[in-house]
Amino acid sequence: MSKQTITVIKGDGIGPSIVEAAIQVLEKAGCDFNYEYVDAGLTALEKTGELLPQATLDAIARNKITLKGPLTTPVGEGFTSINVTLRKKFNLYANVRPVISFKGTKARYENIDIITIRENTEGMYSGHGQTVSEDGQTAMASSIVTKEGARRIAEFAFETARREKRKKVTIVHKANILKSTSGLFLKTAREVAQQYPDIEAQEMIVDNTCMQLVMNPQQFDVIVTTNLFGDILSDLCAGLVGGLGMAPGANIGKDCAIFEAVHGSAPDIAGKNLANPSSVILASIQMLEYLEMKDKAEKILTALRDVIASGDRTTRDLGGSFGTTDFTQAVLERL
């Protein structure tokens, strides 16, 4: 069997240092990959005049698996979000954001283990009909939900629950008010739920979900929802386990997947060897699970857990006083 080639986008700001850390960890765990490095974001803009050069798109399409650091989309007119562009271009319809509690973080909760699965290409983020009236007084945007899109993400969520031996899927919606779009999503997800009698299906309105996540997060297992709600809820979930530094994300399509740190590029601490690389290390663990390399994923997760729990060379956000390289070294030693 030929070696798996991974497309690597190091990203902007703290991206290169935390992605490098994750690759060292993958190597040390015995993952025999080839890596093809390509640029996107500000780095690419400086080199090529484009945020997403064609060569980068070609590499993503060719290798099918991408590991990516945080990218900066410049603020202002004419720059489309790079992440949104990638999701559309490769039809990465499922956004998967797992959060798990780690002993040793400053999180307020223990025993959290939630996967948020969000539809990634439709809803309010489809970018349709964004207009501002000529007098600047009225802005409009339209949300598009299709039955096919809703079915696909609901099936993905229930299949994930079954594969991961999860007990429950919570369908999060706002069908009481958004009767058309959220209504179609809920109706379709209900139909899908009936094909999975082995998994409990629960329905919850999005505002109540926010409250329940804060009051009793342990009740949740897998959450499936539309794009905008999923974006907000997955960040709320990250806050339950110690923040975005502990939250990876995967964008998955039919035959292509991008694994990433979900936090920003933190330009204020770039190059200062301060960043916590856990999110990209956790994204690599997601990538290994996707590639059915569960033993390697487990090995890295155990090492990471141990470093954080023992407080050995942890970064500032984890209560320590060490930098990216020291933290990475602590993980490498355990591997």
TrEMBL record:
One of its GO terms (molecular function) is NAD binding. Its EC number is 1.1.1.41. One of its GO terms (biological process) is tricarboxylic acid cycle. It is an enzyme of class 1 (oxidoreductase). Keywords: Oxidoreductase. SMART domains: Iso_dh. This is Isocitrate dehydrogenase. It comes from Alishewanella agri BL06.
